[in-house]
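Two proteins, back to back. First:
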Amino acid sequence: MRVLGIETSCDETGVAVYDTAAGLRAHALHSQVALHAEYGGVVPELASRDHVRRLLPLVRQVLAEAGLRPADLDGVAYTAGPGLVGALMVGAAAGRALAWALDVPAVAVHHMEGHLLAPMLEDPALKPPFVALLVSGGHTQLVQVRAVGDYELLGETLDDAAGEAFDKTAKLMGLPYPGGPELARLAERGRPGRFRFARPMTDRPGLDFSFSGLKTQVLLAWQGSDQSGQTRADLARGFEEAVVDTLAIKCARALDRTGADTLVVAGGVGANRRLREKLQALAAERGARVRFPRPAFCTDNGAMIAFAGALRLQAGQREPAAVTVTPRWDMASLPAV
């Protein structure tokens, strides 16, 4: 089954073709970072309009790279939520229209399920059950995965997501947009130990997270410092270490609670080098294993949507002709495959 995947949940237009017999055939991504940079964040209306401009040319490009014609497709998958409603509507309308025109089934994909399953895209041996850490700009969740579509939320952030905290902390220190990756790069030059911030909610039981207070700690430290370039790097290092340690502590607790021996990490923050090293060391100490998608598939992309959609299309899931999206969508409500 050859499935076209479309991702337009926020500020990246992603398209891919996944073949259940041959794997990923082709994928392409257009980022809107330059478009939104002057505003310091994503402007929803501008995001939607850019998806309209970019989507169909990317579909043509990906089909050409895969050596396929539209008629060779067996199904279409598109992100239906969660995300920005206008951006979601662009991908859903285009995906549903393509499926109707080609007389092939279409399936709506949950954006976070796409992230969760992304490590399986290139690792056929990886199968549930496992614990998943979904960590991005919009979500920080620990999920017990019993099967595809059978998910139990173990813990989530009570305020800012980890990626959101990275972005906001970078902004208060004057780093350019997008702040999270800039802060992580700056932290590479930081000296360990000069600034040590709290590891929030690790002194109490439970698997929920809270990162908003870290921003305040960094702000106070920044305002009381000499604000030199090295101090900025040292603060970035201290902040990053606090977030990474917190995530690792909660992951260890989740593995203990569930008895799982596999941890899957997905989402944009999953590309963070320090987080990868920390969780790999954690897994090695426990005799467990940790799996990440390649960095390009940590951020939003069409490949994860094509793969997740292929699994659901193979299981017989289909969408009616109506175009609908769900900007707020609980992943626990998904049907099992």
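And the second protein:
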Amino acid sequence: MTQGFKGDIGFYIKNLKTGKVASYNADTVFPTASIVKVPILVGILDKLEKGELNYHDQLTYADSLYYAGVDILGSFKDGEKIELSKVIMLMCTTSDNTASLWLQQLAGTGTRINQLMDELRLPNTKVNSRTPGREEIRKQYGWGQTTPAEMATLFEKMLQREVINGHASDKMMRILGRNYWDEEGLSKIPPGVFVASKNGAVDASRSEVMYVNGHKTPYIFAVFTKNNEDRSWEPTNEAWELTRRMSDFVWTYFNAE
């Protein structure tokens, strides 16, 4: 399926019953685009578990937080109140960039998040934007970077309750199970199946990662692309079409009746 793709592609697929893996360019570094919000989520849960933040804290939105785009939080008026839990929901569910940059700041900046990734033995998974010392690499990868294998491993560690602790891991999996962006790889999973997922997209990079609790075989599927020739934002974008085909194939392979 990936042969002939006009760009660079890597994927990592793991059968969670047998531990078997199928992969291609799985250790190659790719831009995360909005998938960087998964490490940011880890940073926020670290603060919550330490008692430095409370899930139901009332926060005050300020115009200085605004990041240009079509995000929900950016439409708030200066001084409006919003609960931290809802800011987290906006980051992970609708991929709200204003919410995400606010949470990155609350998590202790990208530097602290990157330390957490190192502690999890994910050395290539990094936040670059607004992180001192990473200005040059940001020019290459944008907001964040990872590999298909590392991001899939982060999801598996959450599933195994190894990210921060069991309570934090469970919370993150629930949060990542509420994805508004369900028209690419996620669209090929039956609606009665639990999926924790995150997608990311910029002009030349479209990627997706998901844990699928299949009734026969649970699995993790991560596909990342970069340097894509097709930079359109229509549903027929080459990378999105390929992601759907791959997701459909993997679901059918593991869980077809």
